[in-house]
Amino acid sequence: MHHRYDVLVVGAGGSGLMSALYASKNKNVSVAVISKLYPTRSHTGAAQGGVGAALGNVSEDHWEWHMFDTVKGGDYLTDQDAAEVFSKDVIEAVYELEHMGLPFSRLPNGKIAQRKFGGHTKEFGKAPVERACYAVDRTGHMILQTLYQQSVKSGVTFFNEYQVLDLIIEEGICRGVVAYDIATGEVHTFHAKAVVLAAGGYGRAFKVTSNAQTLTGDLMSIYYRKGLPLEDLEFYQFHPTGIAKMGILITEGARGEGGILRNDSGERFMERYAPTIKDLAPRDMVSRAIYMEIREGRGLGKDKDYVHLDLTHLPREIIEGRLPDITDFARTYLGVDPVLAPVPIQPTAHYAMGGIPTTIDGECLASSTDIVRGLYAAGEVACVSLHGANRLGTNSLGDLIVFGRRAGVAAAKYAAEVGYEELPARADNFATAEIERLRSGSGTENAARIRKELQETMMDNVSVFRTDETMSTQMEILRELQARYKNVSVTDTGLRYNTELTEALEVGYLLDVSEAMTASALNRRESRGAHAREDYPDRDDDNWLKHTMAYRNMNVPGKVNIGYKDVVLGRFEPKPRVY
């Protein structure tokens, strides 16, 4: 079945809906969204803490301070042109969401409420500042609902429960996508002038993660399979406070409200690691501090593998009023009432700083300089590089609305100026063959077993701390798993809602992004932001102040070619990152 739309958005989370909404404001183009899920089930809905914007509603704040924190938090790998655009535009974007009807929490004077968050400071690092605009601890959920309502109102067409299997790219031009209708098993070809990729991250490569089951790096993998680059995949953020053993997120807003991290003796250990802002240090620093406490025997529990997040000194009305969801999570999943007892937490795989490289208008890069015409990306699937080596809390939701909007505007402008490129004959051949290989093959390997081994070994070898030995081991494991994956088949050969088939496809995507991530991390011989190498513990600006560009070697299976792209510097010169 064939469809034709001027602008096609893949993904219905915050960045996808923002792109679709702003593309639809151009009345000369038709806009459609393809999503694996019903839009309001997208993972943006799990974001809890807030959107960072220098509104100054609680105390003095300026966009320059926010820009500085973003660059410093990214350990100076952040592209400063992107950080400047972001820090300015996010202020307007927050007010725009408010005018769309998003129910932000309020101050007594009626203004949008703001609270402190990790890594956000005033006067270029002197003290924490209230910058996170929030809707209790359901900010992402509220953004998703608001943008979906506005997109429906604007006449955007939705294809829900369709899984994209291929990008149609010929002669450096994107001409559409091929997708699988999960409800019927039919393969559909979508012809488009412009495509926006907004399909999220790949946290399901790890055993303990805050990410939903659907975050399997699909579009990163499809892009990579075409010999196109993935940027800075070595930088993967582990959020410090996931529910122990489960990884379900406990928002940084809990520490913004005054929560304290404590070890087995009750010590507030962050005073030793970040004496100025303590528990509100950037996420990479806090995650490493927790791992160090556990390594040195100061963890809690039978296995001494978690620490405590203590909220018990806060008033009940703060805990239950401003953090209702995480209060419910702790009570439901752990049987712990955070009003009365500390909550067991440990770092959880949370966010990809890297992804498909883009310009500040969302144009996808085919190299450090060339673009793929008609193809755009925004959100976690993309790397603009706003987040550098480590994303600050709240900057993910800001990224979605700022760069989602820019990508949607740019895609609509391009689509209004060009005609449709001719589709190649049988554009769906690859996708159809891949489905048939899994449905009718005689392979004896099981995708779920491969996924389990992948997640466990990635957690062991490429998580918070890394070495040459562990990552080299992981590269060998990935080569073996890739070889085994070629022998995978499914037992359910039906067409309608064949989740065994869709999950088998997702395992292939996870293997691809894990390969690019591990190769990029093995190549970077320094520690920076979320990339912490015990064999190269220092940041090395002389040799490594540059972005990694990982390309699949199209001739040698399991080999990754590494290139580089310059970091865009600006008003903030790289300095030691001290908090």
UniProtKB/TrEMBL annotation:
Q: Show where the Fumarate reductase/succinate dehydrogenase flavoprotein-like C-terminal domain sits.
A: 451-579
**Which PROSITE patterns does this UniProt record tie to the protein?**
FRD_SDH_FAD_BINDING
Q: Where is the FAD-dependent oxidoreductase 2 FAD-binding domain?
A: 6-397
Q: In which pathway does it act?
A: Carbohydrate metabolism; tricarboxylic acid cycle; fumarate from succinate (bacterial route): step 1/1
- Localization per record: Membrane
Known EC number: 1.3.5.1
An annotated GO cellular component of this protein is: plasma membrane
Annotated membrane topology? Peripheral membrane protein
Q: What domain of life is recorded for the organism?
A: Bacteria
| Protein family (similarity comment) | Belongs to the FAD-dependent oxidoreductase 2 family. FRD/SDH subfamily.
Q: What is this protein called?
A: Succinate dehydrogenase flavoprotein subunit
